[in-house]
UniProtKB/TrEMBL annotation:
Name of this protein: DUF7001 family protein
InterPro entries per the UniProt record, alphabetical: DUF7001
A Pfam family per the record: DUF7001
Superkingdom field: Archaea
Amino acid sequence: MVDHVSLYRAPTTVADGDAVADWLHERIDASVAVRDRFLECYRIEGLPEWFAEARVRSPYERATGTTMLGTIRYEERALEHPEREGGVLYDGHQIQQALNAALPETESELEHAHVVLLDRAIGTWGEHDGRWHKRVAVLGQPAIVSVPGLYEAPAKPEAYYREKQTHALLSGDVPPREVLENQVGGEFLIEADPRTTDALKGYVLAAYHYLETGEAFCENDGCRLFDAHYHEDLIAAQLREPEFCKEHAALYGD
């Protein structure tokens, strides 16, 4: 049984870890504490190499990583100055292994859940279609909740991609996100969206729920524990009432 949750901030993002922790504390029978950025709290030797090895090379190539000195130097700088990192996709399971190795032995038991709000994009390999898929969360110990993944992992409305392609053909470049948002119907989250904190709450709860019950995500698309693959579904699950399906409302409802 989980009796304590440590939630780690992502200070380079708009995610409010304290607000997420307050929401979580009201719904679970465990203490909740907010800590600073995980990679500041626990810095072990070899982390830059771990991150370099977890880099996704190509959307359709299963192998990851590079040992090039320049890449390792990049990862060293990203650890020191996370605001400069971006545009790289990492194998979520490899990053999880690296962060697990960084946990002190006294806090590694499953009774103490660690949930890392991460300012990097993570993905998992799809055996069914032979390609990488961006993810919002990888559950386990520690659980990783990717803030960029919230914007990038779920598919946006089809009109978004049509407008993006049309603009690229006519002008040779990609329009800013805010332009696409104004021109495309349907709801979706964009980078630094003010709804980010609220949208992350269900994923953080899912991290606790997984260690507590062994259940990953809910199959009901009207529940905060639903792992949405489309932005419309994410908004419906995380930002609309009711918060939970009947089963999970009995556990986490008001």
